[in-house]
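ugh ok fine here u go
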Amino acid sequence: MTSSQTSKKQDLPATAWAVLGLLSFPGERTGYELKKWADSSLRFFYWSPAISQIYAELRRLEELGYAASARSGPEEARAKRRYAITDAGRAALAGWASDTAEAGPPVLKHGLLLRIWLGHLAEPELLRAMVGDHLEHTRDELAAVREAMAQADDVPEWAFPALALRWSERQHLAELELGEALLADLAELDPAGTGTSAGALAADRQGSGDAPTPG
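structure:
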């Protein structure tokens, strides 16, 4: 590997490693197939890269010698380029996956909670509706996770992705429990259902308008 390739290896983003990880399972896949698999696995516990990101990373991985591709033959009506991991790519991926320093802490960006934090600017009914929509969406995602788990069931090559999906199932169940608890917390702020804003209810406690946390 040249010094230029070594430098590029060190600069690889998580997206590149994720795409290479998708290639690490048996078989050759098109960029479209990689996108479909990311949507039915990675997105439940990390994120799903856009199709443009996948193709950009595939080009990068080929330049590094971590992936190789070939066009389909005349037996297919529409030519497709299929990608596979190389021995060098598998070795690099194994090294990255074994480096605990690379994992980093989990990052939570909860859009609903950001709006709840600003609840003094909204009506209680709207906040409750937001939580209800979030619970409905979470139930849909939980069903999708369980569908993916069923597809991975009894496939030896997918044993570890199945573990990640099982974790995601538990995470979605916990999210449902947290959402129901949040609805109960909102009801405590407006127990009579009067529609009084959370901000007005908190004003009596806060008095002078000081920050709700010390410092």
